[in-house]
Amino acid sequence: MAVYLFYLIVFPGLLFSAVTGAFLSWFDRKITARVQFRKGPPLLQPFYDFFKLLLVKETILPKKGSPMMFLLAPVLAVAGAALASVFILLPLFNISSGFKGDLIVIFYLLTIPSFSYIIGSLASGNPLAAVGGSREMKLIMSYESTFLLFLAGIIVKASGNFNLYSVISIQQNTTPFIGSVSGILLFIVGIFCIQAKLGLVPFDMAEAETEITEGTFIEYSGPPYAMIKLAKYIMLFILPSFLAALLLNGFTLKGINILWAVLKIAGVVLLLTLIRNTNPRLKIKQAVSFFMIWMNLLAVIAIVLAYLGY
Fold first, then answer.
1. What does the pLDDT look like over 67-85, one tens digit per residue?
2. Can you tell me the distance from the alpha carbon of 223 to that of 235, in angstroms, rounded to the nearest whole number?
3. In which domain, by residue range, is 259 found?
4. Residue 89: DSSP 8-state
5. Is residue 293 within 8 Å of 300, Cβ to Cβ?
């Protein structure tokens, strides 16, 4: 029991994922600043932001809505992200969880933060938050079906294996899945799904800072908003890690390969940041069509090619 608690709370769960995600958040903001010809924040700025919200800022509860669900939603988001981090990172660090079919469990765990944001926005009683929550629901229905097809393509390439540890082992014993036509197509699909899951431009219509002033999070402040930031830090780390595990051969933590593992994650985050800074925000209708038509079509083509061995 103590070992499992260590995995969940310290490494590779909550604490490790949050700290690493905070540094990746700095990297994302620094690249964004450079693209916009700005200097950017200092290295520890994400930690300053988190602890200022957690320890200094006041929690203001909305007059309308459900205070209990409003406060519970950020906690659920952090819990879902932390659980997903354990299932994703244990195989990446060559620790077999002994769990068969964990890809399906990871899929559901990664949806918890998004659903938690919807619950929190609706519980706030704010009409602008409700607009953000409505957009998030529509977005989830579109990109989650695409993400499921993405995982189906990985399972086909892994000869029907539903176990993340086995998927990584197959790639390390042969070649990374991205080294094929179907793998490249799945990588494209996976990148856009991660962009939507993280709520980054062009899929940030649920938050829309300039339009509905943070939408789903408009009523959050203080420690509850710190929990939301913490969940986002964790997701910024574990989603690129998940993509690296599924398509980029996972991690080999020996010698120079440690640097290669770091570069994989940094490279994926860099790509997400560049997409974020070179595209305008889509309308919700455009985002739904993008995933339901084009990304689903690309994923189906990748599955067919993977079945044929390409």
1. 999 999 999 999 999 999 9
2. 18
3. 2-307
4. H
5. no
pLDDT tens for 236-246 read: 999 999 999 99
Q: Quick: pLDDT tens for 181-203.
A: 999 999 999 999 999 999 998 99
As a whole number, mean pLDDT of residues 251-278 equals 92
Question: What are the tokens at 206?
Answer: 């649920």
**Using alpha carbons only, what angle is made at residue 133 by residues 130 and 139, rounded to the nearest 5 degrees?**
145
State the Cα–Cα distance between residues 308 and 305, nearest whole angstrom. Answer: 5
Which of 153, 184, 149 lies closest to 295 in space, CA to CA?
149
Share of the chain above pLDDT 70, in %: 97
| Number of domains observed in the structure of the chain | 1
Distance, CA of 195 to CA of 205 (rounded, Å):
12
Rounded Cα gap, residues 217 and 280, in angstroms: 21
Positive or negative, the CA dihedral 54, 135, 29, 191 is positive
Q: In this predicted structure, what is the pLDDT of residue 264?
A: 95
What is the crossing angle of helices 257-277 and 14-35, to 10°? 50
Specify whether the CB–CB gap between 84 and 146 falls below 8 A: no
Q: Which H or E run includes 111? A: none
The Cα–Cα gap between 101 and 87 comes to 11
Residue with the two structure tokens 């067919």: 304
- What pLDDT sits at residue 240? 97
